[in-house]
Amino acid sequence: MTTRCLLHVCLVLLFSTEISSRLCTMLHFQQNKVNKESLELLEKVSGNFPSQCINERAAFKPTLDVQLSVSQKENAKLAIQEILQEIFNIFSKNLTPSAWDGTSIVTFQSGLYQQIQRLEACLRAQMEKELTNPESEDHQLTRLRVKKYFQGIDAFLKEKQYSLCAWEIIRVEIPRCFVLIDKLTRRLSN
Q1: Contact 129, 17 (CB under 8 A)
Q2: pLDDT of residue 128
Q3: Is the pLDDT confidence value at 46 over 70?
Q4: pLDDT of 117-147, one tens digit each?
Q5: Mean pLDDT, to the nearest integer, of 169-185?
Q6: Residue ranges in 47-190 assigned as alpha helix (H)
Q7: Cβ neighbours of residue 50 under 8 Å, at least 6 residues apart?
Q8: To 10 degrees, what angle do helices 27-46 and 2-25 make?
């Protein structure tokens, strides 16, 4: 009885790893779609950049220093997952301007969340398959660089007391993250 139960567990694990592996092969297609939808939603959330915010734009000095050593595909996947998670965190604080379209924000967050879940499953499957250490120096450095960048965004929002202009500046900045994600995604497909 125990042997039979153990066999069932092994088969489930085998098939779940295979399914996760197949999800990983489709990852770049899914990510391209999520990027496009996210950019459209960010544009739709508020529309044109408010003219009263132009002078404040100079106050934000982004330091997107995420020149990752992405020779490993897992590190590129990790970078993408971490960037999406940080974007999700920024837009999940319930501090976005009330003037923004709430439905678009929720749809934006939902798309990010779904892709984060896919990436986590893919990373788990890859690391199990290849016995990669999730706490490797490369992975820690990737996480640290991404977190540092988003801490700067968070600090800017706090400093500007989550004003409409601060959020608009960040809304215009976030597409740069999707450009980086697109570059990393292309590396995955090669």
Answers
A1: yes
A2: 62
A3: yes
A4: 988 887 777 666 555 555 677 778 888 888 9
A5: 89
A6: 54-57, 73-91, 102-130, 137-159, 164-189
A7: 164, 165, 168
A8: 60
Dihedral sign from CA coordinates of 139, 113, 64, 183: positive
CB 52 within 8 A of CB 136: no
Do the beta carbons of residue 167 and residue 97 sit within 8 Å?
Answer: yes
Instruction: Answer positive or negative: Cα dihedral of 39, 43, 48, 49.
Output: negative
With a CB cutoff of 8 Å and minimum separation 6, the contacts of 155 are none
Q: For residues 160 and 28, what is the distance between their CA atoms, to the nearest angstrom?
A: 36
**Encoded amino acid at 104, one letter:** S
- pLDDT at res. 90: 93
Scan for tokens 């920024």, then name that residue: 90
pTM over 0.85, yes/no: no
Q: Lowest-confidence range among 35-39, 51-55, 119-123, 172-176?
A: 119-123
**Amino acid identity, position 100:** W
The CA-based dihedral angle spanning residues 75, 145, 160, 52, taken in that order and rounded to the nearest 10 degrees: -60
More confident residue, 17 or 65: 65
Cβ(56)–Cβ(169) under 8 Å? Answer: yes
Residue with tokens 């292309």: 186
* Under 8 Å between Cβ of 166 and 160: yes
The answer to whether 23 touches 183, Cβ cutoff 8 Å, is no
């490797």: which residue's tokens?
Answer: 136
